[in-house]
């Protein structure tokens, strides 16, 4: 069974599993299904704004889709959530990517 099918099977059992949703979005990116990935990341972060790792990947995806304002928005939101969570590593990665894009 391929990864996407396996992840979809896991989500049938627990649709709100942030880890599995994140992994599925990454698999959709690898498969070139960027809008599906975007939708999953956005839903995940709406439901679980503290899932800090997804902000970076969603912002990078928005860069790939050439939507710079959305990428900036997601980097900023991710930095805010990383700061709230005390996740300095994620904050630094988000800030680095944000600065690379905006400066």
User: What's the total helix number?
Assistant: 6
CATH fold category name = Serine Threonine Protein Phosphatase 5, Tetratricopeptide repeat
Determine the mean pLDDT: 97
Helix content: over 70%
Give me the count of strands.
Answer: 0
Beta-strand content bin: under 5%
Secondary-structure class: mainly alpha
Query: From the 3D coordinates, which CATH architecture would you assign?
Result: Alpha Horseshoe
- The span between the termini is 44 Å
Low-confidence stretches: none
From N to C, what is the helix and strand string? HHHHHH
The biggest beta sheet reads: none
Report on the architecture of this protein.
This protein is mainly α and 103 residues long. It has a single domain, classed as Alpha Horseshoe (Serine Threonine Protein Phosphatase 5, Tetratricopeptide repeat). It has 6 helices and no strands. Helix 1 packs antiparallel against helix 2 and helix 4 runs antiparallel to helix 5. The radius of gyration is 14 Å and the shape is globular.
Which key terms come to mind for this protein?
globular; 0% strand; Serine Threonine Protein Phosphatase 5, Tetratricopeptide repeat; mainly alpha; 103 residues
């Amino acid at each position: 069974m391929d990864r996407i099918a396996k992840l979809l099977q896991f989500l049938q059992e627990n649709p709100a599993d942030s880890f599995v949703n994140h992994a599925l979005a990454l698999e959709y990116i690898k498969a070139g299904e960027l809008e599906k990935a975007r939708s999953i990341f956005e839903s995940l972060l709406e439901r679980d704004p503290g899932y800090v790792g997804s902000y970076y990947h969603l912002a990078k995806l928005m860069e790939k889709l050439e939507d710079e304002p959305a990428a900036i928005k997601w980097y900023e939101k991710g930095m805010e959530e990383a700061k709230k969570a005390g996740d300095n590593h994620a904050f630094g990665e988000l800030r680095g990517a944000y600065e690379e894009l905006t400066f």
